[in-house]
Design goal:
67% helix, single chain
Length: 209
Amino acid sequence: MSDIGLNFDGPMMIAAAILGYLLGSIPFGLVLTRMAGLGDIRTIGSGNIGATNVLRTGNKGLALATLLLDAGKGAAAVLIARAVSPDLVFVAGGFVFLGHLFPVWLKFKGGKGVATALGTLIALNWIVGILACLTWLIVALVFRYSSLAALVAVAFAPAYAAIFGTLPQIWFGIFLAVLVWIRHHENLRRLVKGEEPKIGRKKPPQPTG
């Protein structure tokens, strides 16, 4: 919990941002489903490249692999940055998250960032990250909505950081939460209307044009 992010080394910050972004841009959901012969994940369900949409293919193993890899790239970016300098962790963590949301390889149309956000939080402060994951799990088990679980989990992350972390970790948690909520605007609309599909329920194909 010693990350303070107060000393700025321009070239190192730029390198951490670029490498973090490129790592975050790897679309594991798309890669895995294509390797499994399931086609383009963007043409089914919500069109998202994340684990929840991969689950709609009916392949739980691929969904779990997508979840772990998307979280893992977030954690990896933070841990690699910390090994170089603790002052780089928030830059690397922020840009790996942005890379997942806006991957250059997919014309900047990426995932919603939940798994990657949780991975960065675990690497930054394992207590905060684990509590956020447990929050997701509890809400998902009770209400059966992945999107609702994600929104609640990231909303609570800054509060957990306020108790168990540092001021920069609080602001980083707010940054993650704001972007995750923005990326879930369509889910919020469906939740309000009672139209959001529950976990495990397949969603009919959506037009991609």
